[in-house]
Write a structure and sequence with these properties.
Ribosomal Protein S8, Chain: A, domain 1; alpha+beta
Length: 120
Amino acid sequence: MFSSSVESVITIQKKRAEREQVLKEKHVSMVKDRINNYANFGKTDCIYKIPNFLIGYIPYDILIINKYIYKKLKSEGFYVIKLNDEYIYISWDIKNLGKNEKDKKEDINFSAFINNNKSK
């Protein structure tokens, strides 16, 4: 139906889309590993920083990854807040799961995430 040059371009686009999906799932897997680690230590929330790059994967836009992680975790029942482009707050505490994002933003205690020993 298409010429060979058009088909080759379409094939390239499909491969890129597949690699992007693999990359998004890798990020979700990394987030879930972080959640499991925190849960094993008795924590009920964490802040996840989206890395600027992953070795062995294609370059990506942090905003797209942030949006994907947010939607994926939200659909799985986690309480998620986008703090900025790089950081996502995730809670799996029973008392937070029914709240809206607007209700919770003021209640987050970030003291557990602050490094008081950081040299200036």
